[in-house]
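Archive maintenance. Older records in this collection stored only the sequence; we are now back-filling the structure field for every entry so that each record is complete. The fields below show one back-filled record exactly as it appears after the update. Entries are processed alphabetically, and Phenylacetic acid degradation bifunctional protein PaaZ is next in the queue.

ARCHIVE ENTRY
Title: Phenylacetic acid degradation bifunctional protein PaaZ
Organism field: Chryseobacterium paridis
Length field: 831
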Amino acid sequence: MEKLKNYIYGEWVEGTGIGIPLYNAVTGEQVAVSDTEGLNFEQALDFGRTVGYKNLSSMTFYDRGEMLKKVALYLLERKKKYYDLSYKTGATHVDSWVDIEGGFGTFFTYSGLAKRMLPNTPFWVDGDTQKISANGTHLGTHILTPSEGVSVQINAYNFPVWGMLEKLSTSLLAGVPSIVKPSPFGSYLTNAVFQDMIESGVLPEGAVQLVCGEPGNILDYVQDGDSVLFTGSATTGRKLKALPSVSGNAVRFNMEADSLNCSILGLDAKPGTPEFDLFIKEVRNEMTTKAGQKCTAIRRIIVPEHLIGDVQNALSKALDQTKIGNPLSRETRMGSLVGKQQYEEVLRKVNILKTETELVYDGKHELIDADYEKGSFMSPKLFLNDKPFEKNISHDVEAFGPVSTLMPYKDAEEAAALAKRGKGSLVGSIVSHDDQFVAETSWKMASQHGRIYVLNRDNAKESTGHGSPLPTLMHGGPGRAGGGEEMGGLNGLHFFLQKTAIQGSPDILTAITKIYQQGAEKKFADKHPFQKYFEDVEVGDSLETAGRTVTDADIVNFSNVSWDHFYAHTDATSLTGTIFDKTVAHGYFILSAAAGLFVSGKKGPVIANYGLENCSFFKPVYAGDTITVYLTAKEKINRGVKGRNIPSGVVKWLVEVINQRDEVVCVATILTLVAKKSPFIDLNLKGIQKSLGGLTENTQSNWGKMSPQQMIEHLEHGVLVSLGEPEASKCFTPEEQLEKWQDSLYNHRKMPKDFPAPFLAEDDTLLELRHKNLDAAKESFMETLKRFSIYYKENPQAEHMNFVFGKLNKEMWELMHRKHFTHHFEQFGLI
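Back-filled structure field:
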């Protein structure tokens, strides 16, 4: 039987022991063996701390985000084999989708967050700068850097893929290497996904390692700077947290444990209401999805006392209709537990629950294409705790399977009290259309819950479900749930980052943070900052504008244009008792006038105004005052763009408006989209003519079969097609892919060298030569290019067909020619 290999210190290593046999949860057949015996865990951790940390921490947050996206795309292309393995764990197709593609989705989400919100630096400035001296010569702020260590993640058996990827999404993005230790049961699925992550070649050496089997003494070697992320039982988690190596070395420890989550049916949700039906459906789903093997599953069903019978009957019918069996059958809606060992453990807990509460539903389902003896199947079981304030077993014992307990309550106070008796839960839900009931119950139970999910007719169609943790929301809970926090958007990264206070002068803080601090030296130059591409803008680039004297007419005209007739701007007789001496200029006029002073009217790399932050007005501006503006590049934010957007970044500009007395009257931060430099040549006739000067009949191509003259005539043919001479007869790209191809014209990715032109013959024969020699071809090409420029000035709305990209307008043709010319000029070494 195949042994699962471990991936440590950059190598695939097989254990030297007998190992743990892993079985198909549906058929009972052995699938693989997991074995970690003989592994050098101390060496593995050291490899992560040294090689892995060096490689990951030196990358920027932005680049790590791009790394996550590339890995997720690579895995997504190979998802079918993961589903085939997932079925062997007893998971249905829907269960597998949550585990597999839910895991990939977490990577995609964090990649997007990084590219939108995190800096293109290896550190992250957290919070605003604090002025800690009277004159502003001494400032303070905080930076976040990757904790210098390795993260050991110990995962449960229920989500072999998502469990690994949701932890890696934050640790890798933070720049901290990880050692993944999945539960042996289902680890063959984790192993398959991990193999492909390594095969992708995207992750730097040492970024991730994999231990498939028992963890042995791996935690004996953790030290200061390391971290442990544990998902599993609260009992095991507490033991690990108390290890001398963990507690004695201040190792960061995050625990996400099992919890007795509840769902509350509102007092208003009587039979016949949408909420009653939604409640039954939600509870049924949470009992049967993953066969109840979810840390977020509903274990306690809290129902108005007069509706206990109605809920019991409706839920029993819903459970009766749930088809159980082989996940490969299309009829199956609930699979098996992950193995016989887990089956026996759930059965043991069921028997404990029976000692104090009544088993009111015990499904007698016939299995689809499976049998109870070979597989690890268990029918759903529903208990009734008729006195939930006296019988505590329902609040203490969790059967980690398709098992839940009904319990009655009288009012919102009791509902919240019962919810909290679970002593800390990952999630609690409320199904109600009564806003007051929901509000009162939710804030009272919030102290014992990591997440509260409210469901009713208004959000049902788009709701994500009681049991679904989302990357942008915190996953964790207090007390019994472990007290940990995972994901939660960018907050999930803080666990892996060291927060450090930085103090110094404005120049020092600017140098450290790469964010301009007020009072730091400004860099003045003849070139207007708005005429610089994103790559050329430097933090500190500044512009001092001319002055503008504000007049009474300015104030009156702005009132008329804006319709802002606030008395302080228009009525001098109403100023008694105010802070103003006379009618004052509008704050937004000052900001607009400032923009008029600093904006460059000439077309350049600045694409658009992207936003405004932290605008403050400090002094009134009256008619007769003269304002001057200092514009300074404050911060640069790299930005990933999709679709038909020009590749660009965001530049934050500090705007300081000064009056004639050198008093600051307004400070704001404006954001602009600034284009990045294109790697493609401009359609500049002189520049292209100059490049072609180096092309001779003897110039050798770097790839492909074209001669220099064939290349020039090929380019000319493309320009003629863009003029409709001749009009291309068809587009060879399938309609469903056309939008994607057209979008690609806007990005900065170069054309592939091995792209087969669809309009050429199958034997790769090139178009026949039209000109007598290369010089004649060059001359004709330049004349055609001139005609292209004139044609689209005279016909700006014209569109013509392209063989690959479909019908293109002026902008798209220009982008296509720039890419195409660059491709072939590089082919012959002309650039």
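Update note: Residues 93-117 form the longest helix (25 residues). The two ends are 57 Å apart (CA to CA).
Entry marked complete.
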